[in-house]
Write a structure and sequence with these properties.
Layout: E1 3-12, E2 15-25, E3 30-34, H1 41-48, E4 56-61, H2 66-75, E5 77-80, H3 92-102, H4 107-121, H5 137-149, E6 155-159, H6 167-180, E7 186-190, H7 194-200, E8 203-208, E9 211-217, H8 218-221, H9 229-237
Parallel strand pairs: 3-7, 3-8, 5-6, 6-7
Antiparallel strand pairs: 1-2, 1-4, 8-9
Length: 252
């Protein structure tokens, strides 16, 4: 197994955000975490990344915990956080070289991988030599994705990776995720972009009111493809929604 969550709980003040979550994500899976805004998806991911300490419960990656194996775990973990913090005084190339040094990549590996990833995502090579501060949201996102994958981590965690990307870049990311997933890796994604989730997910988790309402394969979630992911999610989260609500007042 790659990620094991046991009895994970977190509250902010008196408000519980995560409640006794138990979850195992196996190697070879692309696990997509879904749910409405404010249900604790980012808190859950931040607990996995050791950015937030849970009130109770444990997180184990590769059968190891952060208390005893923090550096070893983080060397084999790649992450794109939702706020995508970058050093904006660097150029894109400088930042990726900086990240490569953090992971002790050799000069040859660094040049090969940075060239490969930037050629994949960027048509305008000149922009890579300008300060990140002047980049668009989409350009910053692509640099963040490249930085997360540069050291070939066994666990790749992406929080809202499609937000801010144009349709071409989003499709490139879909292809990248599909290529990156293999039997020795796990990809964990949190996203509201269900159209893209449908193209990459092997397994789905639906978080609501601090608990997993669903945890299983895409096939089970969509009833073997009889429903789209967005339809299945709507029926799960709003089973009693009344589609006949009268909104005619706004039509004229």
């Amino acid at each position: 197994m790659s990620i094991e969550i046991s009895g994970l709980s977190k509250a902010y003040g008196k408000k519980p955000v995560l409640q006794e979550l138990n979850l195992t994500i196996e190697q070879g899976q692309c696990y997509c975490l879904l749910g409405k805004n404010g249900v604790g998806k980012s808190t859950f991911l931040n607990c996995i990344l050791d950015f937030i300490q849970p009130d109770t419960g444990s997180v184990s990656l590769f059968g190891k915990d952060y208390k005893q194996h923090s550096i070893e775990i983080k060397q084999n973990l790649g992450a794109l956080c939702e706020d995508n913090p970058l050093i904006e005084e660097f150029t894109g190339i400088e930042y990726l070289n900086f990240v490569a040094r953090l992971y002790n990549l050799s000069p040859t590996e660094t040049e090969e991988r940075i060239t490969s990833l930037t050629n994949y995502f960027f048509n305008d090579r000149e922009s890579l030599h300008k300060n990140i501060a002047g980049y668009s949201t989409g350009m910053k996102k692509k640099i963040g994705i490249a930085a997360a994958i540069l050291h070939k981590p066994s666990i790749l965690l992406l929080d809202e990776p499609f937000t801010g990307l144009d349709p071409i870049a989003a499709q490139l990311l879909v292809q990248l995720i599909r290529s990156y997933r293999n039997p020795n890796r796990v990809v964990l994604i949190s996203s509201h972009d269900l159209n893209y989730v449908e193209r990459v997910a092997t397994h789905i988790g639906v978080l609501n009111d601090g608990q997993l309402m669903y945890n299983g394969s895409v096939e089970e979630f969509t009833k073997n493809g009889n429903h789209l992911i967005d339809q299945a999610l709507f029926q799960l989260l709003l089973p009693h929604h009344n589609p006949d609500t009268n909104i005619d007042w706004m039509l004229n």
